[in-house]
Design a protein that fits this description.
The protein contains two helices and 13 strands, in the order E-E-H-H-E-E-E-E-E-E-E-E-E-E-E.
Length: 201
């Protein structure tokens, strides 16, 4: 699927963009869910808007870039995205989701993957479930069953059992909070720590 170049403070989907901070990320899915390819056509844009009252909208190979000052900072990729237009509209990523977090030099700082995720349009957060894995560029790995990404606070957190592997140890706990790039974190209730030798991970 075609990706789109960065524009200051915008979220972009196949040539269509909506202004604002990262919470517009989820609203932008509305434009991608009915597209099988990328089209920069005004008539197609009007057609998309006219379908906003459809109860269920589906899209394949969804890719969205969030850019800041012309630099892509976050990219989300989903094989399937479904929007349920109910009293409280939400998106479901039933075939998994992958999110890449970049630094100012467009180097990947961390990746977040999960087999399932949901996001309510006005909640400014996403809940990832089932085999959630976050890996940062220091080689630290977070495993948990549920993780919440708070877009406004730029944090990720879990109230579930977590396991964090570092080059030196494996840490188990119940709950954790980290910045969204997973370059710094705090485990709430550590239940165990195992020291490991180099090469055992």
């Amino acid at each position: 699927m075609q990706t789109c170049p960065g524009i200051k403070r915008q979220t972009e989907v196949c040539g269509f963009s909506s202004p604002g901070r990262l919470y517009t990320f989820w609203f932008a899915f509305l434009f991608s869910l009915v597209l099988s390819g990328c089209k920069n056509d005004l008539a197609e844009a009007r057609l998309i808007v006219s379908r906003a009252n459809v109860n269920i909208e589906k899209g394949k190979k969804v890719e969205i870039n969030y850019s800041d000052n012309g630099i892509v900072r976050i990219k989300a990729i989903a094989a399937t995205a479904t929007r349920f237009n109910k009293d409280r509209p939400y998106f479901e990523f039933s075939d998994g989701i992958k999110i890449l977090f970049y630094d100012e030099h467009h180097n990947v700082e961390s990746t977040l993957t999960a087999k399932y995720a949901t996001a309510y349009e006005n909640s400014h957060s996403m809940t990832a479930r089932d085999s959630v894995v976050v890996i940062n560029n220091k080689g630290e790995i977070l495993n948990t069953d549920e993780l919440i990404w708070d877009e406004d606070k730029k944090i990720i957190y879990s109230n579930s059992f977590v396991k964090i592997r570092t080059p030196d140890e494996i840490i188990y706990g119940n709950g954790m909070t980290a910045n969204e790039n997973f370059t710094g974190y705090v485990i709430k209730n550590i239940t165990g720590t195992i020291k490991v030798k180099s090469g055992e991970l």
